[in-house]
Write a structure and sequence with these properties.
Blueprint (H helix, E strand, L loop, with lengths): L17 H10 L8 H10 L22 H32 L2 H5 L12 H31 L3 E2 L2 E2 L2 H7 L25 H4 L11 H6 L20 H10 L7 H18 L2 H13 L1 H4 L1 H12 L6 H18 L7 H8 L8 H18 L1 H8 L8 H18 L1 H12 L5 H18 L11 H8 L8 H18 L4 H17 L3 H19 L4 H17 L6 H13 L10 H13 L2 H4 L3 H17 L2 H9 L7 H17 L9 H17 L5 H14 L7 H12 L4 H22 L4 H12 L6 H17 L2 H6 L5 H11 L5 H17 L6 H14 L5 H18 L1 H10 L6 H18 L5 H7 L5 H17 L2 H4 L3 H12 L4 H17 L6 H14 L8 H18 L1 H5 L3 H4 L4 H22 L27
Length: 1090
């Protein structure tokens, strides 16, 4: 086939190339699949257990009020249906097992003998087999016909000619296709899903429906303004707002529409709209009524596609509505709890907390009797999910209303003989209550502990294993909550629990072990139970040692947690090495444990530390050091974690360590550090901990450590160089301790680090700068002056260009290093060099990270102390004219630090002179600088500048600008707080003058301004005394206007909270009132006689 000739066009072609066009079309093609962020939310935020809330059939008909008897009948029917389904399933499983038994499949096929069958039976069986084969053949031929002929299928019915003849009335004729008609091969095949596709396959959700119905979704809802979006799902709940006509509605429908508008504004509105709508809905909740509001909110909460923000807003809305409606919510308790309770097990802790508060508020509003009658049918529900939620709700109810009123009901539930599920749920209520209160917070339970233990004693020997297990776990949780008290109450159940340990295996044994393990610390706290403690500890350790080899993860976690709480000692178990330490190391210190979950490894480290403290520390350390040279990296890492834990908590134990173990320890940690492939911080931390603990004893090993570090400093991999630099930063102080007055080793390291400052990787460069900082900080000040290769005069100019590096780690390390040089060896550097560095530091004040800005501000102080504050202050004052607020604030902080370092008299005249410039930013910056300055200074220095700065503050407090008055009030607050108890009567006039200027500002409405004003008034009250201060507020407290009284009462309340006793002599004298001459109000007890 000849190639097609393309037409030549002489005109310029300005379109994009075809290849690029195709790529763009692919990129912007319509995606009908579910968005990735939504899928991630579904996968991450909701596990399968949480998704069960969407699988429940919930009827939200608020008009339908079922009686307790009807609900109980429904629950019984559900239970019977589940039992029947279970029996059918067991029967089916039994038949399939008999047919598909593998042993029977291996036997040779037996031929049927026909002699034992009558002719009629044989004929009947033959007909059945023929019919089955015919059905198979007809089905397969039908499917083949449908696929080949592309016959359409509607609702599972294939529209073949024979079926169409039966459906259509007589008279229809089949029309033959035109002669030149050709079937399109790309036509979709017929829908054979009903015939061949199994329901086991999962089809991912699509967004095809969105494309179909987007035309119906309005962009603007009539009568509702301030919406940020309106989704397709919203049409289901807010469709009436779009289609209804207000003139044709009655009063009830109008009320419903108004409520719907407010709910939509809260759900989809902008922040301002949401706030207004929420306030309006809360204020009018009683007017709308619970039925109207719940009809709008509850169905939306059941929507699976709610975003976390929408869900948070709706839950918040329900909480406020319940608070407003109070008793009116009582008839709808069941519906609210059904919708809200699944959020108690949500992944988000904030949602769980909000839901808990809502249920607590609902409990107070509805009352205990109503809650019990609502939730009683769910105590023995067939679904474990519902029972779990019911237990959590009852736990919140018990915590809200107190155990005194709740315990009788709980006792009745746990004594239930009907079925084990009710008893299980009742015990779980106590468990959830303990979990909610938290470990060591059992003060609410302690008064009722004996009653609770008495209730839980019978279920220990229950016929159901689930009940026995949950009882043991609940008692363990109870013991942890009331720890270290309450062993007297637990004494009656010690014997049943101990017998239970002997009878159980597996998870049941783990729960009983956990129970007795939680009670032994309570025994050890009470000296009367010393014999009990010793007996149970010894016996329990025999069982735990036996279970060290258990493959069950729950059992391993349980015994590790128990070990950490046992009061072990060498006297109690003399042969600890053979009976405990050896089996423990063999069972847990292996590669399987090291590759296990993070939780297991953390528990192993904690248990190892506990055993080392209780028995022989150095012996355990010697056991662990062996694993630092293992071939498995995970086991080496586990050993490093354990060594770090052991030494950091018990460094004094290393005093008795011999030189051989000393060498093994350093050698093992160094080997693990060298052999790591995944670079982690724990190796550096462990090295630092070991170096600090050994201190001078590290001297024999310094050469091997430093040779390793220097070798790794030249490695090709950036991560290895970075770790080597970090290690130098850690051990530099120890090198100084080991070398005493000889700094030659540190000077060599400084030279190597100085030569490495040309590093291209910013992370490595930051670590090199930190190492250089540590080495220079460790060297004596006299050595710094004489240091020649490199000298400080060489190091500082090298750092100047590094200051321009944009990487945060490099910036922070470089600024700190410059500050160190300014602090320790500033005299050898030229003043011009310092000014050049100051200009570079000004840029650092714009940094995003706060730590960099703090380091830059501190360095300004060191430089100002070196070269004098005049030049630095001039440069900083020029910086106040810039537009960026953050830069101005940091400049003000730097000025405050300079004033603190060089004393205020060197800085304050220049700052106050700058205030004369009629520019708001400059004046505000000066006030901020004064605020930071007086915040840092103490009262002895502050009081000397009171009279000098008063005219400036007077001008600021009478300025029209709110920010000026706010900042000036902050300055006065810091001044007054500094001068409490340090000023005499000569200074009181100044503070009274300040109070006269501040008091008119108490009517400001801006929250930022009024908080600063009230702070400054409180501080002035403490300086001038309550007597003078109260004269300013008596008249305002009893003013006829409410808006005048409110701020005065706020001031008085603060004074009353802080100085209630000091206010008593200052109350006004009221001996009698004009209208009541006969009654005397004189209180002689309040008179003070001198």
């Amino acid at each position: 086939m000849a190639p097609i000739e393309q037409k030549r066009n002489l005109a310029g072609n300005y379109s994009i190339p075809d290849s690029l066009n195709k790529e763009l079309q692919k990129e912007f093609a319509e995606d009908v699949s579910t968005p990735m962020d939504k899928l991630q939310d579904d996968i991450i935020n909701q596990n399968n257990y949480n998704k069960k809330r969407f699988q429940r059939s919930i009827v939200l008909d608020l008009d339908e009020q079922k009686s307790y008897k009807q609900i109980m009948n429904e629950r019984n029917l559900e239970r019977e249906e589940l039992l029947v389904e279970k029996l059918i399933k067991e029967k089916d499983d039994g038949t399939t097992q008999t047919v598909e038994n593998p042993q029977e499949r291996l036997l040779p096929r037996k031929r049927k003998k026909r002699w034992d069958m009558t002719p009629e039976e044989y004929k009947k069986q033959k007909e059945c087999e023929n019919n089955k084969e015919l059905v198979k053949k007809s089905t397969s031929s039908l499917i083949a016909e449908l696929v080949e002929g592309k016959v359409p299928v509607v609702r599972g019915i294939p529209l073949t000619d024979s079926i169409l003849e039966k459906i259509l009335p007589p008279g229809y004729v089949k029309v033959n296709p035109p002669a030149h008609f050709k079937q399109n091969e790309e036509t979709l095949p017929p829908d054979l899903s009903d015939a061949v596709v199994s329901s086991d396959y999962y089809l991912p959700p699509t967004n095809e429906s969105v494309g179909i119905s987007t035309t119906e979704i309005p962009t603007d809802v009539p009568g509702v303004k301030g919406l940020e979006f309106f989704k397709e799902e919203d049409m289901k709940y807010f469709g009436k707002l779009v289609h209804s006509k207000p003139e044709s509605l009655n009063d009830e429908e109008k009320k419903e529409l108004n409520a719907m508008k407010l709910v939509l504004k809260i759900k989809n509105g902008s922040p301002v709209t949401r706030k207004r709508a929420m306030r309006q809905l809360t204020n009018n909740a009683a007017k709308f009524g619970p039925k109207v509001l719940l009809n709008q909110i509850l169905p939306i909460l059941l929507e699976p596609n709610l975003t976390p923000q929408e869900r948070h807003l709706l839950i918040k809305m329900i909480g406020r509505i319940i608070y407003q409606l109070d008793e009116l919510i009582r008839p709808y308790t069941s519906k609210v709890l059904t919708v809200i309770s699944p959020f108690l097990i949500d992944e988000d802790p904030t949602v769980r907390l909000e839901t808990r508060e809502i249920i607590s508020g609902l409990t107070k509003a509805a009352g205990l009797a109503n809650i019990i009658s609502t939730l009683r049918p769910d105590l023995d529900h067939v679904d474990e999910y519902v029972r779990n939620l019911t237990a959590r709700i009852f736990a919140i109810v018990a915590n809200t209303l107190g155990l005194k009123s709740f315990l009788p009901f709980l006792k009745a539930v746990i004594k239930s003989k009907k079925n084990w599920t009710a008893r299980h749920t009742g015990i779980k209520v106590i468990q959830q209550l303990c979990i909610m209160l938290g470990r060591g917070n059992g003060t609410a339970i302690l008064p009722y502990l004996a009653n609770i233990v008495e209730i839980l004693k019978p279920p220990i020997n229950d016929e159901s294993l689930q009940v026995r297990t949950i009882t043991a776990l609940t008692l363990a949780q109870l013991a942890e909550n009331v720890s270290p008290y309450g062993i007297d109450s637990f004494e009656p159940i010690l014997e049943p629990i101990w017998f239970g340990i002997r009878k159980h295996r597996g998870k049941g044994l783990a729960s009983f072990l956990k129970c007795i393990g939680a009670m032994i610390p309570l025994m050890s706290y009470d000296p009367n139970y010393e014999d009990y403690t010793n007996y149970y500890t010894t016996e329990l350790m025999h069982i735990i040692t036996r279970e060290f080899r258990s493959p069950d993860e729950d059992m391993r976690k349980t015994i590790l947690r128990i070990i950490m709480g046992l009061p072990l000692s060498r006297k109690l178990i003399p042969d600890y090495e053979k009976s405990i330490i050896g089996p423990f190391v063999n069972a847990f210190w292996n590669r399987r444990t090291a590759s296990d979950s993070v939780q297991i490894t953390r528990l192993v480290v904690e248990a190892t530390n506990h055993l080392a403290i209780k028995f022989d520390f150095l012996d355990m350390l010697e056991h662990i050091v062996y694993f630092t040279k293992d071939d498995n990296e995970q086991l080496r890492k586990l050993a490093i974690e354990a060594i770090n834990k052991l030494i950091s908590n018990n460094s004094q134990e290393l005093i008795g360590m011999d030189s051989q173990l000393d060498r093994k320890l350093v050698d093992g940690v160094l080997f693990a550090f060298q052999k790591q492939t995944i670079h982690q911080k724990i190796y550096l931390t462990c090295f630092g901990t070991l170096a600090d603990a050994l201190n001078v004893r590290l001297k024999p090993h310094l050469n091997s450590i430093l040779s390793t570090i220097l070798y790794r400093m030249k490695n090709k991999l950036a991560e290895i160089r970075q770790q080597a630099s970090d290690l130098i930063a850690i051990i530099a102080p120890v090198i100084k301790q080991c070398s005493e007055h000889d700094d030659e080793l540190l000077m060599k390291l400084i030279l190597i680090l100085y030569e490495s400052l040309g590093e291209v990787y910013p992370e490595v460069l930051g670590s090199i700068l930190n190492a250089l900082y540590s080495c220079l900080d460790s060297i004596d000040k006299s050595t710094l002056y004489t240091m020649s290769n490199p000298s400080i005069n060489q190091i500082l100019p090298t750092l100047t260009p590094i200051l321009k590096n944009r990487h945060e780690k490099v910036q922070e390390a470089c600024i700190k290093l410059v500050g160190l040089i300014a602090r320790k060896n500033s005299e050898t550097i030229n003043a011009k060099e310092w000014m050049r560095i100051c200009f570079d530091l000004l840029e650092m004040l714009k940094a995003q990270r706060k730590r960099i800005r703090i380091a830059a501000n501190n360095t300004f102080g060191y430089i100002a102390k070196t070269i004098g504050p005049q030049d630095v202050i001039v440069m900083l004052l020029n910086n106040l004219r810039v537009q960026e607020r953050q830069l101005r604030v940091c400049t003000a902080v730097a000025m405050g630090i300079v004033a603190e370092t060089c004393l205020p008299f060197t800085v304050l005249p220049a700052i106050m002179n700058e205030y004369r410039i009629p520019e708001k930013n400059v004046q505000n910056g000066v006030l901020k600088a004064m605020s930071f300055m007086f915040e840092y200074l103490d009262g002895k220095i502050t009081k000397d500048y009171l009279f000098a700065i008063t005219p400036l503050l007077e001008d600021a407090l009478t300025d029209r600008d709110l920010v000026h008055r706010q900042t000036a009030a902050t300055v006065i607050f810091h001044i007054a707080m500094n001068c409490i108890g340090l000023t005499d009567k000569d200074y009181s006039d100044v503070f009274i003058h300040y109070l006269n200027l501040i008091m008119p500002n108490i009517f400001e409405t801006s929250p930022h301004v009024i908080s600063r004003i009230l702070e400054s008034i409180d501080a002035l009250r403490l300086v001038i005394g309550n007597g003078v201060f109260t004269n300013y507020i008596w008249s305002g407290l009893f003013h006829p206007a409410r808006k005048v009284r409110a701020p005065y009462w706020k001031i008085f309340n603060n004074a009353y909270v802080q100085c209630s006793d000091a206010l008593v002599p200052c109350y006004p004298r009221i001996e009698s009132l004009p209208d009541e001459d006969e009654i005397s109000y004189k209180l002689e007890e309040l008179d003070l006689f001198l």
